[in-house]
C-alpha cells in the first residue's frame, strides 16, 4: 500500500452532506474489472453533466489537480463498494476531510492509502474556507496536523494502528499472518469443539453436490 | 476479562463479539474471527486477484458461498450468460470459485438469489455466528441474532486469507419498538420512520439491537426487512435476539445443524440475548401503533414522510446545509414544495430487492393487486429475491395474480434496486420502489426513486401515483 506521510495541495471544496457512494461511483460502472483507471468515472454524473451551470469542482482548475477533498457530513454513506475509494485514489485524491463518514467507506480508505479526517465546527469551517480560497494546505500524518497558508495549524485524530499502517504502508494481511497465525489456529480449534455447527462438514457440503456450472 | 464485564450485564452484540475475539491488540482493537462469508460478483474479483498475487490459499473454503446477484439478467435467462462486462464479471466469479474450492450457485439453480435472501434460506446464516459480505446490506442477517456486517473488497481478501478482521468494537444502541402496526402499515414503515427521525447518520458508530414487544410478533421476513435498512440509519450492524420464531425458521434448513448438534445449537441460541441489566450507549423508543405508511420524497432515505404529508419547503429549513441538500433533492426529484405526496404521478413500480423481495412481501403486495389492474402507462415488475421465493410464489399462484394485474414476473436477482443489469429507469422516470436506496441515479441515471413498503408500491401501481394503501377498499 502507498505510504502516507504528508500531502500538500489545494483542497477541493464539496460542501454538501450525505454524498453517498452511488454518487461518488455510479453502480453501472461496477462492472469494470480493474481498480486502475476508475478515476474517469469518479463523480461521473456530476462531472459529465449536460446543460449549463458551473463545472463540477474537480473539473475546474486548480481543483482538477487537488489531492485533498473537503466535504460536509456523512461522506461516503451507502453502498460498501470499494470502487468509490479506488476511483478517488486513481483520480489522485490522498485525503478526504469531512464532518463524518460512512463507516465502510471510512475503513476502505485506510486499505488504499487514503487518509479520511473527521473535522467538525470551526476547524471544518476553517479548512473549507482555505479550500474555497484555493490556498494550499498541508496534511501531516506524522504530527496529525493540518497546516494553512497563514501558518495556522489544526490538529486531528486518527486511530493509532491505522496511522501506523498508513505511515509505513503496512500490509494488514501480511501482519495478521505473521503475528497472529497461532492464535487464529487455536481459536478455530476451540470453536470447532464449542460450536461445531459453524464448520460445514462433508455431510452438509453435500447439499451443493448437484450445483451446475454456468456456461459462458 | 475486565471488572466491568462481571459488574454489568452484556448485550447480545457483546456476547457474540466476545465469542469471536481471537485476540485484543494494545490499541483497543481486536482480531475478530469470521465464521461465514457470502461472496458476490461485484466485491470479490479484486479480492481473489489479491489472494492469487500473494500466492496464498483460501483458508476455509467451507466458510464461503458464492453467487452472482447484482449483474444477472432477470428475464430470458438461459444457460447462457449475458454478454459484455456483466457476463465477464459473472464468469470471473465462476472461475474464482472453482479455483479456490468455494461452492458457486449458478443463476438458473433452484438455490439462486440475492445473497441476503439465500443466506437465511440455506441456513448458512445462523444465530451467534459472525457473518460478512462485501455488501453493505449484510446487516440483514442480524435478524437471526448473528453479528453480520458489510465490508469492502480489501476486507474480503483479508477474510479469504485469514478468516479474521481487525475491528474496533462499536457502541451499543437499542431501538425498542412498542405497540402494534395498524392495517396497511408494514415493518418497512417502521424502519423508514426511524431513519426519518434519527437521520442517515443516527446510527454511526453503533451496533443497533431491535427489541421490545413489537419485535416478538414479527416474522423472520419482517425482521430481515428491519435489520436490512440499519445501514440506511448509518449503522453497519442491526440485530434481533433469536427466539422461537428464529429457531422454527431455521429447523430443517439444508446447512443448519441436525440431530444432537441441532439440540446443542438451538439450546445455545435460546439463551443468546441481552442481559436485563446490560447498559446501552443510546436508547431510542418508538411506538409503532400510530405510524402511517411512509414514502421517501428525496434522494437520501431520511428524506421520508408519511404519505399523508406534503413535500417540505427548503425555505423553511433553518440549517443551511440541510436547506441546500433539500433543494438539491427536490430539483433532482422534479418536485415542488407544498405538493401533496399523494398527488405525485409515477411511471414505474419495482417490487423486489433484499429489503422486500421475500415471500411475505409478495403475498402482501399480491393481496392488494388481486382483481385490479395497473394504471395505464405504468410499468411494474416483480422480481423475487430468490428462486425459492419465486417457486413458492408460483406454487401459491401469486405470479398469476401479478400478471393478471399487468405486472411482469421475473427471475431472481437485485435487478432494479441497483440497475446493474438492464432493469433500469430512464432519466426522469419516477418509480415506486420497495428497495432501500433512493440515491441519485441508484435505479438508473436520472431515475427518481420513492421508497415504500410492498403494499404501498402495489397500491401506487394501481393508482398510478403515490397513494395511501389504507384508502384502497379491499
Ligand atoms: S437487492 Fe439491492 S441492496 Fe440488496 S444486495 Fe442487491 S443491490 Fe444491494
TrEMBL record, chain A:
It comes from the Bacteria. Pathway: Amino-acid biosynthesis; L-leucine biosynthesis; L-leucine from 3-methyl-2-oxobutanoate: step 2/4. It catalyses: (2R,3S)-3-isopropylmalate = (2S)-2-isopropylmalate. One of its GO terms (molecular function) is 3-isopropylmalate dehydratase activity. InterPro entries: 3-IsopropMal_deHydase_ssu (IPR004431), Aconitase/3IPM_dehydase_swvl (IPR015928), AconitaseA/IPMdHydase_ssu_swvl (IPR000573), IPMI_Swivel (IPR033940), LeuD (IPR050075). CDD domains: IPMI_Swivel. Its EC number is 4.2.1.33. Residues 1-119 form the Aconitase A/isopropylmalate dehydratase small subunit swivel domain. Heterodimer of LeuC and LeuD. PANTHER family: 3-ISOPROPYLMALATE DEHYDRATASE SMALL SUBUNIT, 3-ISOPROPYLMALATE DEHYDRATASE SMALL SUBUNIT 2-RELATED-RELATED. HAMAP family: LeuD_type1 (MF_01031). This is 3-isopropylmalate dehydratase small subunit. The lineage of its organism: Bacteria, Pseudomonadati, Pseudomonadota, Alphaproteobacteria, Hyphomicrobiales. The gene is leuD.
